[in-house]
Amino acid sequence: MSQRNQSGKARRQPHNVHDKSYKELLGNKKVFLQLLQTFLAEDWVREVNEDDLVAVNKSFIPKSFRDKRADIVYRLRKKDLDVIFYVLLELQSTIDFSMPIRLLSYLTEIWWRTLDELTDEEIQRKDFRLPAIVPMVLYNGPEPWTVRRSFREVQSGYEQFGDHLVNFKYVLFDVHRYDDPELREDANVVASVFFLDKRITLEEAVARVDELRNVLRRFSPEEFRWFSRWMKRSLLSRLANPAIRRKVSRILLDATPQEVDKLVSNLSLAVEDALKEAETKGKLEGKLEGKLEGKLEGKLETARNMLLENEPVDRISKFTGLPLDRIDELRKQLQH
């Protein structure tokens, strides 16, 4: 595979379970490096060393937008090299066509903050260079990504003015566009997460874990822990019953690479319980809805009979509990 508030309002919670999961997962340098080395076919990727990477614990997204998206930032500093990897998590079903413009604003904010930390003398040196920024977007939506990749193309007359215009091209990690067999073949944490992070049902999710048995067995305890924590967030967000949520949480907490068969078996049983409960709940709600519909139809029939007997509308309303406008509607129907 190619390498690839001050207003007094309650504080906004992170907008997406996936954002939490990916921020936690890619917050680990080893996993982030897996992302670059597996899904990015660039010569410079081979020069990136885990020991030279430093996570930047800042978000460059304005506070007013942090309930909609999240970002991950790493800085790589080596001799004569200063690079910032900026990853924007676009984990939603709809595509934002303003992506290149938003990215430019975030990159500019990074450069302004960099300049604020330097003296005028440092900035005015002949050999001064801003840190290079490599913008990246991680997208897991089901629809094909049709947003322009080049910033130049969102500017009027870009064909005419070409290189005179401000330009950059961002890296796109498009989860749904990677082939399943290749993801299984890559056999690492990020590829396994992408393999599970498709629009699939709970049953399909467990089936995919089953397909990853041999991969998971080869994970180190640390890698397995990263994977199981990501899977925990993903699965628990789909389960409504607290007891089943606790059960699945315990299954994933206790799992080890040596007991993958047990993990798959226990997850299958837990999901089966969740599906049975959902089916039972659906049947009960259907019966209740039927009873309510039957009760309403009975009231309507009583109101019709009383109207035929020329009973006063207010008396019919009091007797049946139906609103006056509904009884008036029935009266008009009987007249026609």
What this model shows, in words?
This protein has 336 residues and is an alpha/beta fold. It has a domain at 17-199. It is 52% helix and 10% strand. The chain is built from 14 helices and 5 strands. The protein has helices spanning 17-26, 29-39, 99-116, 120-123, 158-161, 180-186, 189-196, 202-211, 213-217, 221-236, 242-254, 260-308, 313-320, 324-335; strands at residues 53-55, 70-78, 81-90, 132-139, 171-174. A hairpin with a 2-residue loop joins strand 2 and strand 3 (81-90). Helix 1 (17-26) runs antiparallel to helix 10 and helix 7 (189-196) packs parallel to helix 10 (221-236). The longest helix has 49 residues, at 260-308. The model is unreliable at 2-15 (pLDDT under 50).
Average pLDDT: 84
Rg computed from alpha carbons, rounded to a whole number of angstroms: 29 Å
Ends apart, CA distance between termini: 72 Å
Number of distinct helices:
14
Number of strands: 5
Q: Which residue ranges are poorly predicted, with pLDDT under 50 across at least 5 consecutive positions?
A: 2-15
Shape assignment: extended
Strand content: 5-15%
Classify the oligomer. Answer: single chain
Helix content: 40-55%
> What is the makeup of the main sheet?
5 strands, mixed
Strands of the largest sheet, in order across it?
1-2-3-4-5
Structural class: alpha/beta
Helix-strand string: HHEEEHHEHEHHHHHHHHH
